Amino acid sequence: MKIEVMLADGHPVVRCGLRRMIEGTPDLEVGAETGNGNTALELLRSRAWGLAVLDLWIPGRSGLELIKLIKAELPRLPILVFSAQSEEHYALRTIRAGASGYLTKDADTETILAAMRSIAAGGVHFTQSVAALLSTDFSRRTDAPPHTLLTDREYGIFDRIVRGHALTEIADDLSLSIKTVSTHKSHILGKLNLQGQVDLVRYAIEHKLLDPTLE
């Protein structure tokens, strides 16, 4: 019996590429796909799945929040995060949220398929870079940089702000009110001891949190 995979990615071209990759294997098949986080959650609730492959940034419920919701309801479901976001910035957070693997979208076909099979079989799949990060988890250190102490929600909003997303766009993407996003922004500024958006961007640059290859 083939392992049924549910794909959730906001970019149709990425889903198409993954689907074609999987269709060429004897042991994996795409059971459903979506570009919306809310729909992904509904699909995963509808029946048993062998593996969920999720992007961090998709409309509706996205990213770390979605992973936490899935694991709360379906704790045995294996999750592979397949994202354009840098491992250094997000891998540890996705692992703590419940993902069993993290790959960036520049991974080759062999690596992606190996990760899917390993995770679906109950294992984990992390690159050497992620393993190194796990061994020096900043969130558990007293000298942790301020941004590592942001909540997952705050970090997601911080990341979007420094990449130039307007608060209205962030609110729509995360299905939040403008007031809620503004409140999170205020909390972020307070935790980082900064005054405004320009300071946030400067902080991100100084701490190498902006990856120009993802713009």
UniProtKB/TrEMBL annotation:
Its transmembrane ranges are: none
Indicate the segments forming the Response regulatory domain, all copies. Answer: 4-120
Q: Does the keyword Membrane apply?
A: no
One GO BP annotation here?
Answer: regulation of DNA-templated transcription
Chain positions with 4-aspartylphosphate modification: 55
Cite the HTH luxR-type domain residue spans from the record. Answer: 143-208
Is the keyword Cytoplasm in the record? no
Q: Name one GO molecular function term.
A: DNA binding
Protein keywords: DNA-binding, Phosphoprotein, Transcription, Transcription regulation
Query: Which Pfam families does the record associate with it?
Result: GerE, Response_reg
Q: Which first-to-last residue range defines the signal peptide?
A: none
Q: Which residues form a coiled coil?
A: none
**What is the official name of this protein in its record?**
Response regulator transcription factor
Q: What's the source species for this entry?
A: Ramlibacter monticola
> Lineage of the native species?
Bacteria, Pseudomonadati, Pseudomonadota, Betaproteobacteria, Burkholderiales
